Structure prediction request, 964 residues.
Amino acid sequence: MAALTATAPARPRKLLASRKTRVGILYALPVVVYLLVLFIYPIFSTLLLSLKSADGSFTLHWYVEALTGVNLSVLITTLRISAETALLSLVFGFLLANAISRLKPLWAGLAMLVVVVPHFISALVRTYGWIIMLGDKGLVNESLAGLSAPGAPYQLLYNELGVVIGTTSMMLPYTVLLLYGVMRGVDRRLLAAAASMGAGRVTIFRRVYLPLVAPGLASAGLLSFILSLGYYITPALMGGPNQTMIATLINQQVTKDNQWNGAAAQGVILLLLTLAGLLLVKLVSSLGASRKKRSAS
Amino acid sequence: MAEFGVATPSVEVAGGKPATATGKSLSVVALRKTYGDVVAVDEASMEIAAGEFVTFLGSSGSGKTTTLMMIAGFCEPDSGTITVGDRDVTRLAPQKRNLGFVFQQYLLFPHMTVSENVAFPLTLRGVAKDEIRRRVGETLEIAGLSGFGGRKPRELSGGQQQRVALCRALVYRPPVILMDEPLGALDKKLRDQLQVEIKSIQQELGLTVIYVTHDQEEALVMSDRIAVMRNGLIEQFDTPRELFERPRTPFVADFLGAANFLPGRIEKHDGEHTLVRLEQSGGLLKARRHDLTSGTEVKVAVQPGRLRACATDDGFCTGTVETATYVGTLVRAGVRVDGGDAPLLRLEVPAGRGPVAGERVGITAYPEDVNLFPSEQGG
Amino acid sequence: MMELRKTLAGRIALTAVATVILLFLALPIVVIVVTSFSSNAFAQFPPEVWTLNWYKALFADGSKWPAALSLSALIAALSTVFSLIIGVTAATALTRSELPLRSAVYALVLGPLVIPQIVTALGLFLLFEPAAMLGSPLAIALGHTVLASPIAVLILIATLRGIDERLEDAAASMGAGRLTIARRITFPLAAPGMIAAAIFSFITSFDEFYISQFLSSVDTVTLPVRVYNSLTFEIDPSVTAVSAILIAFAILALGLVALVRWLGSGRQNSLLSVETATGVATPGGDAI
Prediction:
């Protein structure tokens, strides 16, 4: 019996496995085809266009143009505003997430609702809300005038301050959500353990708490930086001419100047910056994971 | 290899089989399953009679669950055949086999009520509505669940959920019901109660049940026959009594009876008995007749409950009681045997007549209770 | 639970900081809703005289808003259908089968969520412009699906992972065929997740701006593009009322998702559960 059946043992199992594989490929087909045609292919054609001169030959002209003169300063502005936004949303996000992680569940739930709900309201609408609030007769200036602050009303719109306020409020839900998750994962008994060894509050914060949440902080900061890079609505509506960001420029070149190649080159630069940022995030999180693993073993 | 095939229905099996059995027979021939280089089930064969309660007993990794999954159709064998009644189901999808399956995790459909869960297999079979209502009510009543039909599974306790799962497998009268550690998630008391209930339902309805467990006691309580499995092999397939009293391998003797093992050598045969010279004490032990030639190195296996303390000059060896633990109706004693530093010999004797620590005793056993295994046989 | 003792000063500082930052998030939204009822629709807060004029103006003759609204709704509906088809198939492939290159497929799905939307929009413009499909609602819906379908896929993956696969085995053991299992077991259990996926696909498309702007023509202006234009070029006070309606719409949709999940979970979780809200808020969370 054993000798007879041993000759063709693996066949039915392989059939079953290949059936499951066939089903998998069949069901994965729609999403793969769809995204290849409407996502990957367009990005490749953008890349090709950015390397093509008017007569169709290969050129780096558009990249040179994108990295010189006014375009370069736009790129630098983009990086600067993104960095400012990342820093602010990291600080605010840290403070808020830290506060929420210490609240009672009901209050924490309500607070998270206030964080999450705006995230699902159109950024356009929220930006408009800021415009109403920050105007000369808006809520902020009226309140400051009511407190008889010297020099009120202040110019809070159509400058870098306005842009950073706006983009920070757009990025804040991301950093709060990310950091809240990280902070809930911190075992608070570790802090008590440190206190039992005689560590003061500042020492506990600096030597125990901060190292535990550091990878989360790094990812959250990087993430809001990346997301700000390609941001368009808020800077365009709340900034002045000096706050033109790269996305605004791409939009102008396509819709107004009909300058597709230049737009494509800038799009590719934006894409590369984003991918580099994502790579960093990945690096940081794998660093954090390996540290966790080491401390666990 | 492990073909203890032919059904030898003992007295217990025949007695438990009612005239109106709904169960069918099941036969498994040379079933084999490998995962890469690991042989999960190695040429397992067995014949299960209609109306029989059979348990696959073994620790995890023994192949018991894999065998059950192959019978159910959730896992395809590399080779071998599975026959239900006279239908070969080896290559059929699970839904075409018409078997019943009770899972350890109950797996009740959370979006359906208890009644809807139990009715589900009947609706699949196109049974008329009135008939469904009647049979669901009837089945729930058997399981003591009348009045729970409108509840959702999550509103029931673990024991109740498992009863519903049982109903769902019973209601369409499948020819064979497979159960994969169905009581594993329940506490001891509930488990004991449900063991009795499942057994009595099985006998009443004449069901063929294949039951998987790692709990020896559960297997002994419920089964007509038990297949003891290890490393993908069926070590022995027999009635509980045979397994307990006539284990065929040292593993079975140890797994079911927690036997004491003593090394020795066959001295001679004497009519109904075989005499063994023990290595450690030099004493002569009388066992029931075994077909082993004189001079063979053997392992002597005797269960703790079958050893008796006696006067020091009456036993096959002597020793000193080192520990004596009172455990209710029994005293568990550990005896240091003279003439070596072998592990303590374990005895279970009725409380009240038990030896006390420090006492000098002789050890004896009825020849019927002594099993001999050739030393080269693993264990 | 062993924890550091909280000081009173610490607690007050904590509450104050949390309140200020929460106001920072919530105020712009509150201000719009209040201003939409104000007689002076621009930059004055709080309003002196209350009115419904801006809402009435939305539906007055010659208003461009109803057309924009219906166009956006049409596109969002199309995009939702596409996203659900893609989402159900892809989630099935990724959770219920053996898929070669699984992680590559997963990365492809996450791609549109992490790549700047302006890049995606630019690529789609370069794809549809030569095909003379600019201004086609279908093209815009196809474009929105690039952003909406990954969200649907992620929600449905989570949904299918949450359904014990062995329930399907249990049904099979009783004789249920593949179709019956899908219809009577998997679908009813996945329904809350599918509704959530549909709602989030719809919102994603309905609020999408970049792709709409690149692919729109004079005749096809979606609601967000109309809002943007009215904020930059043609000052139209009704934009406040539109914004307030969009806010109400988003909150309604989120409430619906929470309700469906609550019903689906057997009313065990709190309706306000943070996990309910955040579980869907960061669908790309594990990408980063």
